[in-house]
């Protein structure tokens, strides 16, 4: 789905990709999710009598924020420094990939609650903004996960060079 994005970052160093992820995803998620929670609470409260109101959306977004904060903190404090240093620890990477799976399940719930971002006919501006914002979050988080799972978490494949990385025993 994000093949072009993945290919664009394939040759970047871990440090460059980490900086990109921090600036373009971690910081953005920390800003956008609380704003969406506030907007969702407003829409749920004002339109609680509307049949299409996204009941439970603010709670789901709050749960997502808690999960994302915990996840991003582990990446920033533990995993990213290791990766930047050329260490690819399979255990922590597996944990992060498992958490990415949980984030993707939450994104599917988000799509369900928001009718795939399609606000009902006659929806107010706040409702429309909420659904546009949730779609942006979904897209951003999917890109974020794709870059980490398919680029950052993959140990570079370096072809060993005779005499530098190994010796067959015939060198003198």
Automatic annotation (TrEMBL):
Record key words, sorted: Cytoplasm, Iron, Metal-binding
Alphabetized GO MF terms: metal ion binding
Domain Hemerythrin-like: 19-154
Pfam families per UniProt: Hemerythrin
Subcellular location: Cytoplasm
InterPro entries the UniProt entry points to: Hemerythrin-like (IPR012312), RIC_family (IPR019903)
GO-annotated cellular components: cytoplasm
Keyword Kinase belongs to the record: no
Protein name: Hemerythrin-like domain-containing protein
């Amino acid at each position: 789905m994000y093949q072009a994005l993945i290919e664009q970052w394939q040759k970047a160093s871990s440090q460059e990709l980490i900086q990109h992820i921090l600036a373009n995803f971690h910081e953005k998620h920390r800003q956008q999710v609380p704003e969406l929670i506030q907007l969702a609470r407003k829409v749920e409260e004002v339109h609680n009598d509307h049949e299409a109101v996204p009941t439970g959306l603010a709670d789901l977004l709050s749960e997502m924020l808690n999960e994302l904060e915990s996840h991003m903190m582990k990446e920033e404090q533990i995993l990213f420094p290791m990766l930047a240093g050329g260490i690819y620890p399979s255990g922590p990477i597996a944990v992060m990939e498992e958490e990415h799976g949980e984030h993707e399940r939450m994104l599917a719930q988000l799509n369900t609650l928001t009718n795939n971002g399609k606000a009902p006919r006659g929806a107010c501006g706040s409702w429309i903004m909420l659904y546009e914002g949730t779609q942006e979050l979904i897209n951003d988080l999917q890109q974020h996960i794709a870059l980490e799972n398919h680029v950052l978490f993959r140990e570079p494949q370096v072809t060993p060079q005779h005499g530098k990385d190994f010796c067959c025993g015939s060198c003198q």
